[in-house]
Write a structure and sequence with these properties.
By secondary structure, the chain is α/β, with parallel strands linked by helices. It has nine helices and twelve strands. It has two domains: 5-97 and 176-240, Rossmann fold; 100-172, 2-Layer Sandwich (Alpha-Beta Plaits), CATH 3.30.70. The strands form two sheets. Strands 5-4-3-2-1-10-11-12 form an eight-stranded mixed β-sheet, with helices on both faces. Strands 6-7-9-8 form a four-stranded antiparallel β-sheet. It binds magnesium ion. Residues 23, 25-27, 195-197 line the site of magnesium ion.
């Protein structure tokens, strides 16, 4: 594996007081049609331990706090729900925005999950306590289309944002994203930010002074790019050694 010399040089000269913000799915682990199964491998855990020991590190994910701590435990700082929830290691989690009415809306939509699944065979639904995810991997294109129009109506009804990602659709809390959360936490400190999805573009665009790395294909506002999750492990290795 060879990483671009540019990104390597940039990482070597990353200031010691830098913060590190790492997306989880598609960046630290491969994407999966069964996202409840993507536990970290032992190499990843060792690398994250080493990187966290050197830099103030956050896992910045769209997942719920419950899901991500199921995978990683309480050993890292976490930004969950696309920036809506912050949990610093050893501290109580807190919502960065008022999420009460959105949590209620998601609970009510989730209570109708059997109805959704009977109408859209193969659908998976996850309630994230402030967001709800519809996993479309196993839906026909036609069913995906009708579900998405239904979700547009639900977004309008609830005031939530509808996000369409890589074979998922999600209703999200409006007014917050990873980019704004990261920017707020940094308070202008130097940072490395890495991610693979459209949601990570907010982080790149709102933190243009940071060392930003896109994982995988597609248009990006990031300064650097690596090909895939495996190649990003190379970046983690570089960050982990003094
Ligand atoms: Mg991702």
């Amino acid at each position: 594996m060879s990483l671009g010399t540019d990104v390597e040089t940039a990482i070597r000269s990353l200031p010691r007081d830098s913060m590190v913000f790492l997306d989880y799915d598609g960046t630290l682990v491969e994407l999966s049609p069964d996202p409840e199964t993507t536990y970290p491998d032992s190499e990843l855990v060792s690398l994250l331990d080493a990187v966290s020991a050197r830099y103030e590190t956050y896992i910045a994910t769209g997942r719920s706090l419950l899901e991500i701590t199921e995978f990683l435990g309480n050993r890292y700082n976490i930004i969950a729900l696309h920036g809506a929830v912050l949990m610093k290691r050893g501290q109580e989690p807190r919502y960065l925005v008022d999420a009460t009415k959105y949590i209620e809306y998601c609970n009510s939509a989730f209570s109708r999950r059997n109805d959704f699944i009977s109408r859209y065979p193969g659908l998976k639904i996850t309630n994230k306590q402030g967001g709800i995810v519809f996993i479309l991997w196993r839906l026909s294109p036609r069913d995906s289309g009708s579900l998405v129009s239904e979700l547009r109506n639900m977004a309008a009804e609830s005031g939530m944002d509808l996000y369409l990602g890589k074979r998922i659709a999600e209703l999200r809390i409006p007014g917050i994203n990873k980019g704004t959360a990261i920017r707020m936490l940094r308070e202008s400190r130097p940072a490395l930010i890495a991610g693979d999805d459209i949601t990570d573009e907010d982080s790149f665009i709102l933190n243009q002074d940071a060392l930003t790395i896109k994982v995988g294909d597609g248009p990006t506002a990031a300064r650097y790019r690596v090909g895939d999750v495996k190649e990003f492990r190379g970046i983690l290795r570089m960050l982990s050694v003094p």
